[in-house]
Amino acid sequence: MTNNFVFTVNSIDFDENYQPANTTRATTNFANLARGESRQQNLRNTLAMINNRFNALAHWDNPTADRYSVELEIITVEMKIANQGKENSFPAIEVLKTTIVDHLTNQRTEGLVGNNFSSYVRDYDFSVLLLDHNKGKPQFSVPNDFGDLHGKLFKSFINSSAYQENFTKLPVICLSVSDNKTYHRTNNLHPVLGVEYLPNETSLTEAYFKKMGLDVRYFMPPNSTAPLAFYFFGDLLNDYTNLELISTISTMESFQKIYRPEIYNANATAGKSYQPNLTNLDYSSTHIIYDREERSKLAIEQGKFTEEHFIKPYQTLLEQWSANYAA
Question: Which run of H or of E encompasses 305?
């Protein structure tokens, strides 16, 4: 059954001239920044934030704080579905890949793939399936197989020749913390990732990513205001170099300052016990325009698109494949 799916990897540079492709999820964070009258200024300012943050963290042998810059590629993973002799392509996943440019040595080093994570099937699971499952019910619940298909599709891609031919290391995905959990600071301190936090309870997002094969740890990097969630395979602290980790931190912390300024651009730093607050008004603006309301509306539309063009047409095939899948 594994031959039913063939993955292909395409990339486009995320720079100040970036224009979203027609197949890009409209809710994807970087696509949101690249629309409207301020699109080029948005992109230019975002890239400057990323480079400045990278140099602040990679401060050794970097006295003028301009030794490095980060180049970003948007990686689009398409899944071709063999169906009665016809191949239909579905945009499965989008992630970001970093490349580190050292202007002192003129070397380019591959950073990490992952960073931001976008998925049509994830939209369907959270914005259609979960809502339908709880419609009319007095108490919220989650289907037993919630996230199973998505997790298996993701692991199938990670184990595919397409992934192994394009990337040398396993992905690290960096997300914001949840505003309905409390995080407690530990004594564990990493020179780049910063101080580790532990959540008071597990979450639906953690369980969902666990089915993708990913573990999670929470770290607040130096001079950050809140912890970030790092989802990874293997050993986060020892499988990656400091510069690789910095490429992810600088990229995703900059995006989070734009998307979640109440948390990541707050004027107060997380304490020993920290609960994120999206109603916090004591934060600074990045002056980068981002339409958060549009993103929420489009998530439902794109979840329904997935249901119509992927889940329903291939339901029998997907159920058979999922039942027989072995990583």
Answer: helix 292-306
Q: Degrees (nearest 5) of the Cα angle 33, 172, 261?
A: 40
Rounded to whole angstroms, the Cα distance separating 156 from 161 reads 10
Q: Which residues contact 190 (CB under 8 A, 6 or more apart)?
A: 196, 219, 237
Look at residue 102 and give its three-state secondary structure.
strand
Per-residue pLDDT of 53-109, as tens digits, reads: 999 999 999 999 999 999 999 999 998 876 645 567 888 899 999 999 999 999 999
Rounded distance between C-alpha atoms, residue 253 and residue 172, angstroms: 14
Q: For the chain, what is the domain count?
A: 1
The pLDDT, as a whole number, for residue 211 is 96
pLDDT in tens, 143-182: 989 999 999 999 999 999 999 999 999 999 999 999 999 9
Query: How do strand 215-220 and strand 194-199 relate by DSSP bridges?
Result: antiparallel
Range of the domain at 9: 2-324
